[in-house]
Structures are given as C-alpha cells and as structure tokens.
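_Per-residue structure_
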Amino acid sequence: MPLDVMRDLCRYWAEEYDWRATEARLNAVPQYLVGVNGLRVHVVRARSPYPGALPLILTHGWPGSVLELVGLIGALTDPVRHGGAPEDAFDVVIPSLPGYGLSDKPTTPGWGVERIGHGHGHGHA
C-alpha cells in the first residue's frame, strides 16, 4: 500500500471518524449476548410494532460488522413509516458472527461458514 494512502487512512481514523455517532447508532437498538454452542454471541434485536411480524435474521459478511446492517432496521420493522404495509413488517435479529464485534472468538477450529450458517454446530449447511 502506498505510504501516502496509509497516512490519509490513519489521519481519517484519528481525526475525522466520529465513533460517538456510530456508537449512538448502535446503542439505539436493543443488544444482547446469547449462548450458542458454547460461545457468547452478540445480537442486535429489533422488534416490529406490528403483531405477526415475521422473524428475519440478517448476517454480515466476512469480514464485516452488524454496523453494515443496522440502517435497515427502521424500514424492516416499521414499513408503514417507509411507504410499506403492516404485513411487510419483520422482527429483526442481527448477530455478530463468532470472532467479530462483541461476540466471543472461537477457541477451537471448525467455525467456518457452514457451521455458522447451520446454527447448531454440526458443520452442515
């Protein structure tokens, strides 16, 4: 990476990036630590105000963060405020993948895409 590009990036993070605004965006939604296969997994949980809302799990990529997805919560949980209908509502769950964000880092091998996607740790997609 060119040195001037790295300097600009470091300067941005040190002088311009507003962590407090990002922190406030994340703290605006309920968050929990839940046990999954022996790990504590950080989960953002946003319930819809509409009865019968379908549960929807959104997962970030590798690498990634729940911060990439929290901006979708309003439209998904309260579609009426965004031009939709109540029957389009979802209860949203956004987990931080194992090893990311506030989720525990696995201490044993085998926590790949298939195991995480399956949800109970047997390694089948």
Summary: Residues 30-118 form a domain with the Rossmann fold fold (CATH 3.40.50.1820). The beta strands are 31-36, 39-46, 54-57, 90-95.
